[in-house]
Amino acid sequence: MATIPIPPAERKLSPAFADALRVEVATLQAKHPVLADAIGRANALLHEGRFFPEEDGQTAVVTASKGLGTYVVTSAHCVCPDATHRPESPCKHRLAFRLYQRVSEGLAHPPTVLDDLWGMPEPPPLPEAEGETPPQAMAHGLERSAQVGLLMGALARAQARMHNPVFDSQNPHFRNQYASLAAVRDAVIPVLAAEGIAVTQLPTTPEAGWITLTTCLWHESGQYLWSSMRLKAPKDDNQGLGSALTYARRYSLQAICGVAGDEDDDAEAIRPVTKQGGRAA
Q1: What is the mean pLDDT of the chain?
Q2: How many domains does the chain have?
Q3: Measured between alpha carbons, how far is 181 from 193 in angstroms, rounded to an integer?
Q4: Which domain range does residue 202 map to?
Q5: % helix / strand / coil in the chain, to the nearest 5?
Q6: Predicted local confidence at residue 134, as pLDDT
Q7: Could you give the angle at the alpha carbon of 51 between the alpha carbons of 50 and 57, nearest 5°?
Q8: 235 membership: H or E segment, kind and range
Q9: Which class for 70: exposed (0-12), middle (13-18), buried (19 or more C-beta within 10 A)?
Q10: What is d(CA 100, CA 73) in angstroms, rounded to the nearest whole number?
Q11: How far apart, in Å, do the first and last CA atoms of the chain sit?
């Protein structure tokens, strides 16, 4: 660990950098679910003002969480204990450096000096945003913005007016009725939109035959809540991937909105078949 003086940490990311960082973090966590937690910690490190890039853009200084010293880090190397003991996995400091690089490359005016990254002091936040903290990773594959009060209020109002979707389709194997993706969207999207909530469902293919779908509720205030669902396609071809994507979109949208689009069969479909042809108890 280096022993250079610790820079002041009372800084907030500039609005442009913070907005771009939010998108980059969500994209990378959906693309690399195994690293989602580490990416979340790297995101928090940037928001906490503990990341200080050098003028050359190739190295940075990161202060330790308890303020006991600093680490010098690049995108490929770090001297922290985690990097020393687990060199095969990128530590949060290296991930923070990569986030800084990727966001900087995407900005119209990449930050070249410290003040460009951290920006000028922002006006006092609205009452709902007081005590703002970095985005919170709630569990693997789940994340929310630091503040969700406005989003949750709008979602509660939307759910009070929502109805379960129409069961317009039938499963040919179990002959049970269910709501198609179109029926689920018809039931929830207009009600959410009326409360200032947009929905995105972004698919990625982390490996052959698998799909990861990230479903996000975006409130007009900038607050958000997203979850990722990973499932294996029935066949590793375009038709199989398309079928898996539709399935994931239907169930993810139902779950995040709190509506039911299937008949409750008391888990009958997943019980093993007995020799007599019935379902095991």
Answers
A1: 77
A2: 2
A3: 17
A4: 139-266
A5: 40, 20, 40
A6: 54
A7: 165
A8: none
A9: buried
A10: 12
A11: 60
